[in-house]
Amino acid sequence: MILARVTGTVVSSQKASQMEGLKLLLLEKIDPVSMQGKNDFIVAMDGVGAGVDEIVFYVSGSSARMAETTKGLPTDATVVAIVDLIELKGTLTYQKR
Questions:
Q1: Which residues pair with 46 in a beta bridge?
Q2: Is the pTM of this model over 0.85?
Q3: Which domains does the chain possess?
Q4: Residue 71 carries which DSSP code?
Q5: Tens digits of residue pLDDT in 38-52
Q6: How deeply is 25 buried, as exposed, middle or buried, from its count of CB atoms within 10 A (0-12, 13-18, 19+)?
Q7: Are 58 and 29 in contact (CB under 8 A)?
């Protein structure tokens, strides 16, 4: 799984019919120690109802098509979890507000 921050949404009026009604998110990969963005972006399908500024985990490749909402869909990245907190070596580096 890859740690990222939701930075926005992507709207597409023309897409494969099986993708109708699914939300697309713009994600920026982040460093888990500094929690700073890596200026590395990806578009992913939202499998958990994530929103802008939330910290999430996403999966890519064939794992992206294993989530209940994306089985058999043409996706290469899917958000599978919203992060509540990150603790590193006994120090809380992130906590959802």
A1: 79
A2: yes
A3: 2-95 (2.40.50.220)
A4: T
A5: 999 999 999 999 999
A6: buried
A7: no
